[in-house]
Design goal:
Blueprint: H1 26-40, E1 56-57, H2 58-68, H3 73-84, E2 96-97, H4 111-114, H5 116-119, H6 140-150, H7 152-158, H8 160-178, E3 188-189, H9 204-207, H10 234-249, E4 268-269, H11 271-290, H12 296-313, E5 314-315, E6 320-321, E7 324-325, E8 330-331, H13 350-361, H14 396-408, H15 412-429, E9 434-435, E10 442-443, H16 449-459
Antiparallel strand pairs: 1-2, 3-4, 4-7, 5-6, 7-8, 9-10
Length: 481
């Protein structure tokens, strides 16, 4: 179908032609995905891409480990262990772990901006390792559980779960206690980079309160590797830098439940972050059971988080979950794919599930009706841009999560169609970072690690309606056991 102009409101949805079959040569696609992961492996972790993202990123590593388990369960375990080795004393898992061998000017904000080992000393930042001071969505316990299931004997022999479990518990405790800035039981974000959907239009209103750092005060390395039309604007970047600077200068201290001054200028409860926290609490319950530890606290916390999610972020009129601006004290009206990710939560009321499915297929997201891949933002929203970072493009990790959610709720045909669409886009785009939701044209960088990793995971399914966890590994002589 012909897409609308980048900023225009799309035409009413049309039913697309039948989705094509999975790539004819699955083996070729699998080997291509493996080559990306082998090339991007640094010896202890995987970079998202060597040019644009030359360090280790937090939720990237979780998704990468999910795919790596089919190539090398040992390497998948190391991926998560390396990330968790950079955990701060207060429990936070930083969103970037910096490689000291990479030049400072290769990425901004660089280690000398964050100054984690000094500015974050009071919060327990590692002394001999530089990281950022903010976080990303908590996919890690889910990833750890899936990695364990790929080779339980190897995992047990290395004591993998026993070593990562206390770190994951501390990570979730940080989010549920120190980041409950609204006092309503949900984790809050204090920077637009934290929910992973960095440039979402959901942040436009709260960011408007932030005085930006002047563009001349910093140099954006991202534009050396990506087109300006695909990336955040200089104005947005200036606001990101201001928020990060202020957070650093507060010693990376989080606000209080009353958001007293000095506190964050940006504080939002995001449904995607909290849905992934709930899914990972359920995974922690499975890990606890495997270790012979009581899973009840994790199940109790998952239920409490689910209740808070419904109470604070569900909007029946919108037909989805919305973000809550804690500074303004109200829900934000913008619709993003994050508001559909609570479909991952196993204990949602059936009526809420039905409404979310209708919204996903309706005019705002058009999944399976107007587009084959879930866009990151409302197709009919005034800020929709099918090319610009998180303002409309489709991302493989969000679609992987949606595929899993659809399968969880018995939507097997829709899940199979989405799986096919993800693989087709990965193959056609050269494992692009993100794609145009209408044409699947690749945008951003290529040979992107989580795109390749999640393609590997989807390829590991035995066929339409296959194993939800895809726990079995696939080995054909490549990689390391």
């Amino acid at each position: 179908m012909t897409p609308p102009p980048a900023t225009a409101t799309p035409a009413p949805p049309r039913t697309p032609a039948s989705a094509p079959a999975l790539p004819a040569d699955r083996h070729t696609l699998r080997r291509a995905a493996r080559r990306v992961l082998l090339r991007n492996w640094t010896g202890a972790a995987t970079v998202p891409s060597h040019g644009l993202y030359p360090h280790q990123w937090s939720w990237d590593s979780a998704f990468i480990a999910i795919g790596l388990r089919h190539l090398s369960p040992l390497r998948a375990q190391r991926e998560l262990e390396t990330l968790l080795g950079a955990q701060w004393g207060d429990g936070r898992v930083p969103h970037i772990v910096f490689n000291p061998a990479v030049p400072l000017d290769a990425y901004f904000p660089s280690p000398d901006f964050w100054r984690s080992s000094t500015a974050g000393a009071a919060a327990g930042a590692p002394r001999g390792l530089e990281t950022s001071g903010i976080v990303q969505p908590p996919v890690h316990a889910l990833a750890a559980w899936l990695v364990h299931r790929a080779d339980p004997a190897l995992s047990g022999g290395r004591g993998f779960l026993a070593r990562v479990y206390p770190r994951l518990v501390a990570w979730h405790r940080y989010l549920t206690e120190q980041r409950d800035l609204g006092g309503g039981g949900l984790a809050a974000i204090v920077h637009p980079w934290e929910p992973g959907m960095d440039n979402s239009p959901c942040w436009d209103r709260p960011l408007a309160r932030v005085e930006p750092t002047p563009p001349g005060a910093f140099r954006r390395a991202d534009l050396d590797h990506g087109a300006a039309a695909d990336r955040p604007t200089d104005l947005d970047y200036g606001r990101y830098v201001r928020l990060a600077t202020d957070y650093r200068d507060r010693g990376y201290r989080d606000g209080t439940t009353t958001l007293r001054t000095p506190g964050p200028a940006f504080a939002v409860e995001d449904p995607g972050v909290n849905a992934l926290l709930i899914a990972s609490e359920h995974a922690l319950a499975e890990i606890a059971t495997a270790l012979g530890t009581d899973p009840a606290p994790h199940r109790h916390r998952a239920r409490a988080l689910t209740s808070a999610l419904l109470e604070r972020l569900w909007d029946q009129g919108a037909g989805q979950f919305l973000c809550r601006d804690l500074i303004a004290g109200k829900l934000l009206p913008e619709r993003s794919a994050a508001g559909l990710l609570p479909l991952l939560v196993p204990d949602l009321p059936r009526a809420v599930v039905r409404t979310l499915l209708d919204t996903a297929r309706g005019t705002h997201f058009g999944l399976g009706t107007t587009v084959r891949l879930l866009p990151s933002y409302d197709l009919r929203g005034p800020a929709f841009d099918r090319h610009r970072y998180w303002r409309g493009p489709a991302w493989s990790n969000v679609n992987w999560l949606m595929e899993r959610a659809l399968r969880r709720h018995g939507e097997r045909a829709a899940a199979d169609a989405l799986r096919t669409a993800i693989l087709d886009a990965a193959a056609a785009s050269g494992f692009a970072e993100y794609v145009d939701p209408y044409t699947a044209e690749g945008r951003g960088t290529r040979d992107f690690s989580w795109t390749a990793a999640l393609a590997l995971d989807l390829l590991a399914a035995p066929g339409p309606g296959g194993d939800d966890d895809r726990a079995g590994t696939v080995r054909d002589g490549e990689g390391e056991r």
